[in-house]
Specification:
CATH architecture of the domain at 92-307: 3-Layer(aba) Sandwich
Distance between the termini: 35 Å
Order of helices and strands: HHHHEHEHHHHEHEHEHHHHHEHEEH
CATH superfamily of the domain at 92-307: P-loop containing nucleotide triphosphate hydrolases
Strand content: 5-15%
Largest sheet: 5 strands, parallel
Number of strands: 8
Helix content: 40-55%
CATH class of the domain at 92-307: Alpha Beta
Number of helices: 18
Strand order of the largest sheet: 2-3-4-1-5
Radius of gyration: 27 Å
CATH topology of the domain at 92-307: Rossmann fold
């Protein structure tokens, strides 16, 4: 081969590698360039380390005739005050969806969303606004980590029954039900004595010591049926449900595994089978559906999935400017990098105050599971699609280990067609697929794209994933 042809061949290789963004020189350290734009993401986002945030603070401070440190400290103080207040960014659509789930008898709903996205607040707002003809057994499992879900629901039913004693239509039903609930409660360790209104009816009940474990389900069954005999209907709402179902050891403990199976069997009976009640399980883990599946739940028994995402763009920008005191340019910069996640934005603001011109917007959230997912072929294929499109379709959710891995690492969630989402792109148009992987947040999408950009090697060219789907390099 002539020298000229060799040169042309080498030049072609360099150009090709440059186009796909995967060119690496042997022995070269990959330091992020000063300005690296991620294609398909907002033009204002720089993939390299940038001091543009502190420059924006300095410019805003100058316009306000103050210094940068004083300016950013005033924003932090206003943000603190806002987050401690009862004022929240409007999430009415999410609240209404929660209410509809509570009021739909026979429906099992999973509510998923990253931590600190306001799920608990939305739950409380939905409970307050819920129709007056719904009797809700509601519990936050953060108050009972590792406890049996059925045991906790039995306690809640006891407390709820106390409040019913003044309602005329419940009075004829209370004596019998009180005895059943109280007996079931006393039969299990760790329960306090029955509440006074209940214990008044429990004198002549069966020997509670010999009561079998199945009496819990029976007692709760009786409670739900009693409510159904009135003008009201029952609902069960469990916040941070993963702490009880499957539990702290994820079902590894034998006793915990048995408790989880019993609870799932009861939930399926109350919803799909007997249409006695609605059940809403709330979790901050996007891998929660897979944990339930491992504990024995059939995905087909999940009637509805609600993904609590970030707040609307207009509301987020309004909050940053009006409530936190940012000027327009700084607010838009925070939005470009951190989207509509209020908690992460607050973390970034605190970091900016301390780091100043050394602030790195990509170091605010460090997902430990991202590197391992990038190295896994099946997971990486989904991550590439997420970085480009904002989602990745799943061919067979039962066997897709990549989708499961992403969910278990809380980088994203697996949702079914028909899931209620907020602020996500249109996903299931023009496809027969019914499942998809979505990122846990807008900022997570940026982190995925950036991680893939720096880790990209020539091996990613034309690689084929285990499902036989052609994979291109993640273009960023």
């Amino acid at each position: 081969m002539s020298g000229s042809r060799k040169w042309r061949g080498a030049l072609a290789c360099v150009l090709w590698a440059s186009v796909v963004g995967c060119f690496l020189t042997t022995g070269t350290t990959r330091n992020p360039p000063r300005s690296v734009k991620l294609r398909g993401l907002p033009p204002g986002v720089d993939a390299g380390k940038t001091n543009s945030f502190w420059v924006a603070v300095q410019n805003a401070a100058s316009r306000s005739k103050t210094d940068a440190q004083t300016y950013v400290e005033s924003i932090v103080a206003l943000a603190d005050s806002h987050m401690k207040s009862s004022k929240v960014v409007d999430r009415d659509a999410a609240i209404q969806n929660l209410i509809r789930s509570m009021e739909k008898t026979g429906l099992l709903t999973l509510v998923l969303g990253g931590k600190n996205l306001g799920k608990t607040f939305l739950k409380k707002a939905a409970l307050q606004r819920c129709c007056s003809n719904v009797v809700v057994l509601s519990e936050d499992m953060r108050n009972n980590p590792g406890a049996s879900l059925l045991d906790v629901l039995l306690q809640v039913a006891n407390r709820t029954l106390e409040k019913m004693t003044t309602e005329e239509e419940f009075k004829p039903l209370i004596p019998t039900l009180s005895a059943i609930l109280s007996a079931a409660a006393v039969a299990f360790e760790g329960f306090a004595p029955a509440a006074a209104p209940i214990s008044n009816y429990v004198r002549d009940v069966v020997n509670v010591v010999s009561m079998a474990a199945g009496k819990r389900e029976k007692a709760l069954d009786e409670f739900l049926q009693m409510v159904c005999k009135t003008s009201k209907k029952p609902a069960i709402v469990v916040d941070e449900a993963d702490l009880a179902l499957p539990g702290l050891t994820n079902g590894q403990d034998g006793g915990e595994r048995r408790e989880a199976k019993s609870a799932l069997a009861a939930i399926t009976k109350w919803t799909k089978q007997d249409m006695l009640s609605s059940v809403v399980l709330i979790s901050s883990e996007f891998g929660y559906p897979f944990r339930l599946q491992a504990a024995g739940l059939d995905f087909r028994d999940i009637g509805k999935v609600i993904v609590i995402g970030e707040v609307p763009k207009s509301d987020m920008l309004k909050m940053l400017k009006d409530d936190w005191g940012m000027d327009k340019d700084l607010a838009e910069m925070f939005y470009e990098y951190f989207g509509r996640d209020i908690f992460t934005t607050k973390q970034a603001l605190e970091s900016l105050k301390e780091e100043k011109d050394n602030f790195d917007p990509f170091a605010v959230v460090v997902p430990p599971g991202l590197p391992s997912c990038v190295k896994n072929a099946a997971a990486r294929a989904h991550l590439e699609n997420i970085a480009r499109e904002g989602f990745s379709l799943v061919e067979d959710v039962k066997v897709d280990e990549g989708a499961k891995m992403i969910a278990e690492e809380n980088l994203g969630g697996v949702i079914k067609k028909g899931a209620v989402t907020f602020g996500l792109p249109t996903i299931f148009t023009g496809t027969d697929e019914e499942w998809a992987v979505i990122p846990s947040s807008y900022h997570m999408k940026l982190l995925i794209a950036r991680k893939r950009h720096w880790d990209c090697t020539t091996s990613c060219l034309g690689e084929t994933n285990p499902q036989g789907l052609q994979r291109s390099a993640m273009t960023v």
